[in-house]
Design the sequence.
């Protein structure tokens, strides 16, 4: 199996059988992420403990295969990590998507999310891939501890 086929299989698996689709009981942070240009619309929930560790997370909503698979992969990566580690992974993912980080050894930290690196060559799909990551960044950077909000993530800025 070539690398391109493997990446497609990983994306397909996360889209068809997302591990983190559903609701978290008593989330500490909930935020809606919307990409109105293509219709991707997610609700991301995180449970963060008193030590700033993301102990659980989930998503609901609808969107294309890339947006749904990307947010599921992201949750695989960040659950069990401290907030600052999760933000570091988001920064690495954004660098990969923008084509700024291309070193495969550096991208190993992203685990299966690194399979989305070729999205950088498909500008119309970049917004789909980064929706969950941008939503998570906004949640953690704004130190929201309760409630929900809405955000429009139409760019990679």
Sequence:
């Amino acid at each position: 199996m070539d690398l391109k086929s493997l990446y497609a299989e990983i994306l397909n698996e996360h889209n068809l059988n997302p591990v983190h689709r559903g609701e978290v009981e008593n989330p500490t942070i909930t935020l809606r992420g919307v990409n109105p240009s293509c219709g991707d619309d997610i609700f991301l929930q995180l449970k963060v403990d008193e030590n700033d560790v993301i102990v659980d997370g989930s998503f609901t909503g609808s969107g294309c295969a890339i947006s749904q698979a990307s947010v599921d992969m992201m949750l695989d990566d960040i659950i069990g990590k401290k907030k600052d580690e999760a933000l570091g992974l988001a920064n690495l993912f954004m660098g990969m998507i923008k084509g700024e980080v291309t070193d495969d050894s550096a991208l190993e930290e992203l685990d299966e999310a690194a399979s989305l690196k070729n999205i950088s060559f498909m500008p119309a799909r970049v917004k789909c891939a980064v929706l969950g990551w941008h939503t998570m960044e906004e949640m953690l950077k704004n130190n929201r501890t309760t409630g929900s909000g809405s955000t429009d993530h139409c760019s990679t800025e």
About this structure: The chain has five helices and four strands. The helical segments are 3-16, 65-78, 83-97, 104-107, 123-141.
